[in-house]
Design goal:
Blueprint: E1 3-8, E2 12-18, E3 25-32, H1 40-53, E4 57-62, H2 72-88, E5 92-96, H3 100-110, H4 116-138
Parallel strand pairs: 1-4, 4-5
Antiparallel strand pairs: 1-2, 2-3
Length: about 140
């Protein structure tokens, strides 16, 4: 089973994929757009990755409030997930993404990524890998 993890944001979507065994996620790219409402090209690029990588399932970060409730950002992530699922025909799973960006920055600190531009360019795809790893950990053996 191969998974794609997506960290949906207002102007970017971080993308991560699992390896061929479906167990080790890694960040692959960040899909950027000019406006939050301009999703056609974003979806098309994600579809290209899904087809090229033979992805079976999609995991999207759900940006919950710190108290666990869903706000406007979570609603937008769910709507994006529904759109991607309709376009690809693949199942979409949502995973709590609270603090995934903080963890992504910690990973960059631990691995020596210090350059400000490098950190900005990588954070969303690393956060997508964190979200995907959390999902895999939660569903191990299911």
């Amino acid at each position: 089973m191969k998974y794609i993890g997506l960290d949906y944001g207002a102007k970017t979507v971080g993308v991560a994929l699992t390896d061929a065994t479906g167990t080790i996620p890694h960040g692959v790219e960040i899909v950027r757009r000019d406006s939050e409402k301009r999703l056609r090209r974003t979806c098309a690029r994600i579809e290209e990755i899904i087809v090229a990588e033979q992805v079976d399932e999609i995991v999207i970060g759900l940006p919950l409030n710190m108290d666990g409730t869903e706000g406007d950002r979570a609603e937008k992530a769910r709507a994006f997930g529904e759109m991607v699922s309709r376009r690809t025909g693949l199942p979409v799973h949502f995973m709590d993404e609270r603090l995934s960006t903080v963890e992504a920055y910690e990973i960059m600190d631990d691995t020596g990524v210090k350059d400000r531009k490098d950190r900005k360019d990588r954070v969303d795809s690393i956060a997508a890998a964190v979200i995907l790893q959390d999902y895999l950990n939660e569903h191990a053996g299911s």
